[in-house]
Backbone:
């Protein structure tokens, strides 16, 4: 037998129970805005010019552009279109770019955990060190926001075998690490259920633009086509979640922002047909459904 995770059973799409999001919508749409900080002269990170010696000023400065400029351009667009966001936050941002955190807080955006920094992977740590990483990031967010985050996206979406158990132990209610479905799925952990909410690896500017080298217009069209196709698919009655993953140092470049604004305006113009929300709101709705409506376990 092949090894398995045993976090959830296999549930094929046909035959699932239909339910609706608020106001009868069948499609929930959320924006995941990644605010990340990287160590200078060491650590991980996407690279314009791979493999250069440290300190790698070019790549560090390119990423830092997102926190200094790109994220503010994205905020302007979110305000213009009245779109909420789930902020996926490295806790190091509180020290490095506190005004950016304050701006999202003032909007009422959801703050979700995204580790301490994207210069590390939690998946390679022993359980005690991984538990400490989660605890440190959670404590920083709780102190700054006045409430503990409920959702988590691991830096680099890197999980150890223990990560879901450690997240549930620390009080997290949902994870964005699993992209294996178009709808939420309950996962088993040693400390109770943890909801896996889909987080995209297709409609995501890092794999699209950095890995596949798609252009700005191509990425924007991907958002529109994914949205329109999902609206068509949910006519079968089964609800879906569409995430749009954005990294300000990539999407915040002016020519990409121009294309993104057109795509997000396409979504915003159809908000009466869908539920534009946060990932935390998706959790709240699913948690209020009758047992067994959402698959898992």
Residues:
């Amino acid at each position: 037998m092949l090894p398995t995770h045993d976090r959830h059973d296999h549930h094929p799409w046909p035959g699932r129970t239909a339910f609706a999001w608020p106001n009868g919508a069948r499609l929930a749409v959320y924006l995941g805005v990644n605010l990340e900080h990287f160590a200078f002269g060491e650590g991980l990170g996407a690279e314009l010019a791979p493999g250069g010696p440290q300190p790698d000023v070019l790549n560090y400065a390119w990423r830092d552009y997102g926190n200094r400029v790109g994220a503010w351009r994205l905020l302007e667009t979110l305000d213009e279109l009245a779109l909420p966001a789930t902020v996926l936050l490295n806790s190091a941002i509180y020290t490095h770019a506190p005004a950016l955190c304050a701006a999202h807080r003032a909007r009422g955006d959801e703050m979700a955990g995204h580790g301490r920094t994207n210069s590390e992977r939690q998946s390679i740590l022993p359980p005690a060190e991984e538990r400490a990483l989660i605890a440190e990031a959670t404590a920083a967010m709780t102190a700054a926001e006045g409430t503990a985050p409920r959702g988590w996206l691991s830096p680099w979406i890197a999980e150890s075998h223990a990560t879901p158990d450690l997240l549930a132990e620390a009080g997290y209610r949902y994870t964005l690490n699993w992209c294996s479905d178009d709808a939420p799925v309950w996962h088993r952990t040693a400390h109770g259920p943890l909801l896996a909410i889909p987080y995209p690896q297709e409609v995501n500017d890092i794999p699209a633009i950095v890995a596949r080298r798609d252009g700005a217009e191509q990425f924007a069209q991907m958002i529109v086509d994914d949205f329109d196709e999902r609206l068509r698919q949910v006519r079968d009655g089964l609800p879906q979640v569409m995430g749009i993953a954005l990294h300000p140092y990539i999407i915040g470049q002016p020519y990409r922002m121009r294309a993104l604004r057109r795509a997000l305006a396409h979504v915003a113009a159809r908000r009466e047909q869908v539920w534009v929300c946060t990932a935390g709101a998706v959790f709240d709705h699913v948690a209020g459904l009758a047992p067994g409506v959402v698959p898992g376990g």
